[in-house]
Amino acid sequence: MKKKVAELHLKSYVVRDKGGKLTFPSTIPKKRSSIRMFILGCFILYSCISEFYEIKDFKLTLEMFSYTIAIYFIVEFIDRIILSFEELMNHFQPRYGKSLIKVLKHTFYFSEGACLIMISSLAIVGKFYSEHGFIDTTKLHKFSYLKSLFLLLFLRKVLKIEHAPIYNSLKFEDNDGLSYSTAMANSFYHGYLKLILPKTSGEDKNLMEIIDIYSDRNKVDVFPKLFILVPKSAFCQISLKSSISPSIEESSSLDEKKLTIAGVQKRSYKNSVYKIRDPNNPRKVYYVCAEYATPLRTFKASLDFSGLFNETFKKHADDIVLNFYLIMRDFVRNDPDICDLCELIYYDDRDEHGLRDIAPLLLSKVKKQNRSLV
Q1: Cα separation of 263 and 227, whole Å?
Q2: Which member of 38, 116, 117, 295 lies 3.0 to 4.6 Å from 184 by CB, making a disulfide possible if both were Cys?
Q3: To 5 degrees, how large is the angle CA 214–CA 220–CA 221?
Q4: φ and ψ at 63, to 5 degrees?
Q5: Residues 316, 251: contact at Cβ < 8 Å?
Q6: Domain residues of the chain, as ranges?
């Protein structure tokens, strides 16, 4: 009896998975159904049938709906022509690698269903126009235009016109706070930077204090800031030291910072220190704290994985990385506790020879800020 009561109690707040079928308790939101589209489809079917019975002319009914659809696609096509010119003028090289084919695919994508309906409606309109010119609107019912608008709404949803790559890119520009970029940025900011950079408790130390301890212990001058690398390709090397960056060497890490987070006792956080030799003065060594923005590593792994959403991620990888950087930049600049402790560096990490050497970029940042302090 007690066992049954306990099971019933669990069912009241736990999602259960039985053979792939999910059962949700009343307090947890479940996946939405497609009932809205079903009801809208039934209403459209009723509108088409009622329109035919009201005007008593099948050809006129077909002509009216065909004109509505054709005009909609013509307007949509004009809008995409305008968008394509904007892409060519402002984003031809960075987003499309100077490929006109990529621009056209990005801006003029339509699903197969949309193409079929667009071509059919234009063909029907052309046929009727060749027979008697424009449609005789005096024969239409007073609610005909309203039914046409409902038909367009239904077709736009079913054919997913707004899911074209160009519109998805524009959604990233609008940034409604629901994008993958926003999720990555919030996770990185609240789940990492806000933990390792400022003080998190009375006895804790911020990054500047940890760097000072390291500098005093090792008799070196570590640049008092954490550089966070945001490569355009989202590729994050295991270490900044590599054959690509021969002037960078690994040094020992800063002292650990241990925090109890999300049920993990004394989780360890620590930042790496790198030595960079000045190619113009090999005896001069700069010590910097630098690392990649770790969410990008996960994102890059998703690009290489042939799973759900993979193709969408690949199409919009540049948009996702760009907006991750822009959101993180706002977070850092508007937070007085960490704005002076870190700097994001967003850069094109590849050239015609492959991966770029990160050393000159880090050296320029350090030298520039050192000069500003003099």
Answers
A1: 29
A2: 295
A3: 90
A4: -65, -40
A5: no
A6: 1-31, 38-174, 180-373
Please give the Cα distance from 309 to 197 (Å, whole number).
34
The model's pTM: 0.77
- Cα(205)–Cα(257) distance, rounded to whole angstroms? 8
Share of the chain above pLDDT 70, in %: 84
The phi, psi pair for 344, rounded to 5°, reads -90, 135
Cα 104 to chain centroid distance, Å, stands at 21
Phi-psi category of residue 56: left, alpha or beta, with phi > 0 → left and psi -120 to 50 → alpha: left
- The count of C-alpha atoms lying within 13 angstroms of the C-alpha of 81, restricted to the half-sphere facing its C-beta, is 6
CA–CA separation, 173 and 362 (whole Å):
29
State the pLDDT at residue 37. Answer: 66
What are 340's two structure tokens?
């002076």
**Exposure string for 96-125, b = 16+ CB within 10 A, e = fewer:** beeeeebbeebbebbeeebeebbeebeebb
Helices 144-159 and 35-55 pack at an angle, to 10 degrees, of 150
Task: Decide which of 3.40.50.11540, 3.40.50.2300, 3.40.50.12100, 3.55.10.10 is the CATH code for 180-373.
Answer: 3.40.50.12100
* 68 burial level (CB within 10 Å; 0-12, 13-18, 19+): buried
Distance between CA 194 and CA 342 in Å, rounded?
Answer: 11
> Is 50 exceeded by the pLDDT of residue 223?
yes
d(CA 126, CA 348): 50
Tokens 């066992």 belong to residue: 3
Cα angle, residue 340 at apex, residues 273 and 336 outer, rounded to 5°? 135
Question: Which position has the token pair 């990529």?
Answer: 102
The tokens describing 94, both together, are 């960075």
Q: Determine the residue type at 283.
A: R
DSSP code per residue over 305-358:
S-STTHHHHHHTHHHHHHHHHHHHHHHHHT-TTTTTTEEEEEE--EETTEEPPS
**Structural contact between residues 223 and 231, judged by C-beta atoms closer than 8 angstroms:** no
Cα angle 3, 8, 14; round to 5: 115
Question: For 305-350, how does the pLDDT look when each residue is reduced to its tens digit (9 = 90+)?
Answer: 766 667 778 888 888 899 999 999 999 999 998 999 999 999 998 8
